[in-house]
Amino acid sequence: MHPSELDLAAFQPLAGQLDDVVTMMRTISRTTKPEAFFREYVERIRQFYAVDRVLLLKHAPDNEHEVIVTEVTEWTRPRQLYEDDGIGIHLQTGLLLSLLEQGEPLILNDWEYDEDDPGTVLLAGMRSLRAVPLFENGETAQMIIGLKAEPEAFRPEELPGLVWLSNLFRHALQNLSLAEKLNNAYQSVDREMKSVGEIQRSLLPESFPEVYGLELSSYYETSQRAGGDYYDFFPLPDGNVGILIADVSGHGTPAAVVMAIMHTIAHTFQGPYDSPGVFLNYLNEHITDRYTNNSGTFVTAFYGVYNPHTGNFKYASAGHNPPLRRRCGATTVTKINKVGGMPLGVTRDIQYEEAEELLYPGDRVVLYTDGIVEAAAPDGELFGTGRLGEMIGNCDLTTSNIVDSVVAAVNKHTRTTAQSDDRTLVVMILRNGGAPVQLQ
């Protein structure tokens, strides 16, 4: 026989085994569900192991000197390959327990089982045995036993490949199941977060009061399903309106909870309604006493009361970004920041000062949270108050136009950078006298 023919003949068994391995690996790479992964393994294990019977040995959960034996063909759940559920035949002596305790790869050819062995029902009629240990944290956690009725059925050179392939499969299945559990947990949390976000958005104004000569628009976007930004409008006596914007430290559900608390407290305020400082004092006392004193949470806030008859805008600030004001046709932007104060929730013993700003027809005022001005480009450059101020200079724009322009500019600035903070805008434009302007 020609040498090449000898080589080809010798390769035929390996080629068949290689095909089995390649097929299994292709299936593994395509499978995302543990059940499908498991079914493929059970289907091929007899073919790949070339055996008449396959046993899985596991230590009993409460006794390391007891072995639990199951047949692979009787497995019903993927987790049986890596979890101890106690299901199977329990043995406290015999060959199978000894093999598991030794924890080493082993082949027994032309072997005869002891009829007194407690595992006789599993070993009867078998003449060849191959033991493949499965490792966990460096120790033998389980063992796959392959059995054949014919003697001298197993070749020692196949054993190393079986050891690594079996362990690869076990850990792949374990990781796939873990990934599925994590994904299910994420989906559950995401559904809850979505519900929290929906509840939170229901606390924001559904409609705004009509205010003489004032046009308003707003924008609200959380970085997660729920967030800590908050804005609100309060119709007050004599046609005045209170405008509140706030930003709870942190993100997600904890910030959303504090935001909801803020909403509740703000709507229990009984006056005096023309005093923004007293309003912030009220919020601060209640938040600090019951909710933020020991949590490290704080809230920045700006509250202003606008009188449409006089154009007076009385305000107080608790560490919040100062609103920007720009006259129609003006080239400069001013900040409404004559007074300030510590954020809400830091200390109870503080009184918030008030200041006044006289607004004129054509004035544009934008209130915002730091998620707008601190939105970062890929190179780290912040959007900044300069860009925001430029967006409110066009006298022909409505409040809705300004909101759309700012949002588009922020998105263009950040490009592929993930949103890391909540973003809120409230835009005011003072119009000339006449009927109240319908809010946007």
Automatic annotation (TrEMBL):
<dbReference type="Pfam" id="PF07228">
    <property type="entry name" value="SpoIIE"/>
</dbReference>
<dbReference type="InterPro" id="IPR029016">
    <property type="entry name" value="GAF-like_dom_sf"/>
</dbReference>
<dbReference type="InterPro" id="IPR016132">
    <property type="entry name" value="Phyto_chromo_attachment"/>
</dbReference>
<dbReference type="InterPro" id="IPR003018">
    <property type="entry name" value="GAF"/>
</dbReference>
<feature type="domain" description="Phytochrome chromophore attachment site">
    <location>
        <begin position="33"/>
        <end position="91"/>
    </location>
</feature>
<dbReference type="GO" id="GO:0016791">
    <property type="term" value="F:phosphatase activity"/>
</dbReference>
<protein>
    <submittedName>
        <fullName>Protein serine/threonine phosphatase with GAF(S) sensor(S)</fullName>
    </submittedName>
</protein>
<keyword id="KW-0378">Hydrolase</keyword>
<dbReference type="InterPro" id="IPR001932">
    <property type="entry name" value="PPM-type_phosphatase-like_dom"/>
</dbReference>
<dbReference type="InterPro" id="IPR036457">
    <property type="entry name" value="PPM-type-like_dom_sf"/>
</dbReference>
<dbReference type="Pfam" id="PF01590">
    <property type="entry name" value="GAF"/>
</dbReference>
<dbReference type="InterPro" id="IPR052016">
    <property type="entry name" value="Bact_Sigma-Reg"/>
</dbReference>
